[in-house]
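Attaching the record inline, Q. Sequence:
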Amino acid sequence: MAIIRNRKGVLVIQWYDPFEKKLCSKSTGLTVSETNIKKAKKYANQFQEKITRDYKKQKELGVKIVTIKEAFEHFKKINQNKHPKTIADYERFYKKFQEQYDEELPCTAINKLNVEDWLLELRKLKLAKNTIHGYGKQLNHFLNFLFEYNYTQMFKINREVKTRPEVKEKITFTDEDLSKVIKNLKGKNLNFKSSINLLAYTGLRPSDLMSIRVKDIDLQNRMMKYYSPKRKIFREIAFHEKLIPILKRRIKEIKDGPLLNYNCTENFGRAIRRYFEMLKLDDKKYSARTFRKTFISLCRSRYNMDASVVMELVGHEHSNTTDKYYNKISIETMKLELKKYMIPKVLRQKK
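Structure, as predicted:
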């Protein structure tokens, strides 16, 4: 029951919060007088009625009283098979979330108003727009999990408060720069040469390429298998004839095991960035992902390759029903389309 206390001449309401399971207090701002005591008691009764009503409603909805920490541990357990980068994103979000929410609080302390306040404060931070949106996406995942397990009452966030992604410029290599990247591989080890050539001639993600093992490559039939961590499926594709010499040399060098020697995609990316710095291309916002964007752009816009075949080659999910469920694109079809693809040749200008 909410009661009135005299605290240094000011009337304070004290009550037991069944959600947080602790005594709480709140100043009324009223000084001690007979009239104000009546007002404070009336306010305390209304306040207690609201707490009782809310608690009863939570009970009826089957809301379970667990701490935010317990809920997040459950959330991680359910999502333990996700990609390590996704798990790292969850951890990064939770660390930011804890700046406002004490993890020992019950999940019922998370409500529409304070979540929207958290998002509004988040948007004020001097961070990249997509970094802020990343926090917003993980918040949505966590909230949906809380709602699913009845850890807090469901609510809807105002669309004006939600974070939004930034659509960035599509950066692709110029013909001159792509030619420069390929031509300057002399002196590099076979691991790196294979990495650059695979990126340039397949358009696959670094994480896809890192899954390829020697046994997955069929040089005679120009086929390779790989596991896509992003899509969580095993795939088989044809590869460009220009890759045969470099793959032969690499296979002869390592004989067995993973084709490329990188511990993680971050190390893969760092090796690419260092190479760009050496070529003085580091001011052009190029990254390992630029190879994928360039490959797809050249295939579709310059060489007019079949869109469905390009999607199959780079591991994109087909969007139309025909290709998704009925049309099986053969290895031979991929080989025929790949004949159209080439690294642009840049002629040296005469001085």
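The chain is about 50% helix and 10% strand. Residues 175-338 form a domain with the hpI Integrase; Chain A fold (CATH 1.10.443.10).

More tomorrow.
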